[in-house]
């Protein structure tokens, strides 16, 4: 009898950051840390023009993330709350290191004004951590037979989701898909993306 692969379709959600560690539990394809951004930081990010939203793509350990974010803010000319943003991203990176069991991370601050990933998908990485810092949150749902979502849910701004990817090394294939949310009046979105990096520096 053919032994079909198991599909992980469960989600664990909690305001406790330790929930991210359950991504490796049997059947769990998404671990969601339910939280929000500090009001002052959210207001500052909302007030930045598109050209001043910080952008970066760096491979580094979590201990160096805060300095990298500060540098990205300086390059963008956005310094008023750079320390607060740096500490926010560094905190998420520390949790990602544990959730993804990866001492080295690829950390991206990505700015978009449209819907860059409109199709439902599972990322071609072992795992990925996502957090929307400005704009609407990432949409997700359990995968249907056609690779779409059976039902659509949306992460809150500031919440942190650890998703299994297509290259997840443990038992159980990723069974929760996600996509970028539809654009809202052309307003820019700032997304934090964290991927594990292997010993050769490739995701």
Describe this structure in words.
The protein is of the alpha+beta class and 203 residues long. It has helices at residues 39-47, 65-76, 82-99, and strands at residues 7-8, 10-14, 28-33, 56-60, 105-112, 127-134, 139-142, 153-154, 160-164, 173-174, 176-179, 189-196. The strands form three sheets. The chain has a seven-stranded mixed beta sheet. The model has no long low-confidence stretch (mean pLDDT 92).
Distance between the termini: 35 Å
The low-confidence runs, each spanning 5 or more residues with pLDDT under 50, are none
Q: What is the succession of H and E elements?
A: EEEHEHHEEEEEEEE
Biggest β-sheet, characterized? 7 strands, mixed
Oligomer kind: single chain
Average pLDDT over all residues: 92
Count of separate DSSP helical elements: 3
Bin the strand percentage.
Answer: 25-35%
Question: What is the alpha-carbon Rg in Å?
Answer: 17 Å
| Spatial ordering of strands, largest sheet | 2-3-9-6-12-5-4
Which structural class do you get from the secondary structure elements?
A: alpha+beta
Helix fraction, binned, reads: 10-25%
Number of strands: 12
Name the shape in a single word. globular
């Amino acid at each position: 009898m053919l032994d079909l692969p198991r599909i992980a379709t469960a989600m664990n959600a909690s305001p406790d950051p330790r929930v991210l560690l359950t991504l490796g539990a049997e059947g769990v394809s998404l671990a969601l840390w339910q939280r929000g951004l500090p009001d002052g930081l959210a207001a500052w990010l909302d007030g930045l023009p598109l050209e001043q939203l910080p952008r970066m793509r760096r491979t580094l350990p979590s201990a160096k993330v805060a300095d990298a974010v500060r540098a990205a803010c300086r390059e963008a000319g956005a310094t008023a709350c750079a320390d607060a943003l740096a500490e926010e991203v560094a905190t998420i990176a520390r949790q990602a290191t544990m959730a993804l069991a990866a001492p080295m991370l690829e950390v991206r601050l990505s700015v978009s004004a449209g819907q860059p990933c409109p199709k439902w998908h599972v990322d071609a990485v072992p795992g990925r951590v996502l957090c929307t810092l400005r704009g609407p949150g990432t949409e997700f749902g359990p995968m249907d037979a056609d690779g779409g979502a059976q039902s659509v849910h949306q992460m809150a701004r500031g919440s942190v989701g650890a998703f299994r990817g297509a290259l997840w090394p443990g038992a159980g294939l990723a069974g929760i898909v996600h996509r970028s949310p539809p654009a809202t009046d052309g307003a820019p979105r700032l997304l934090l993306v964290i991927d594990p990096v292997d010993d050769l520096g490739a995701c």
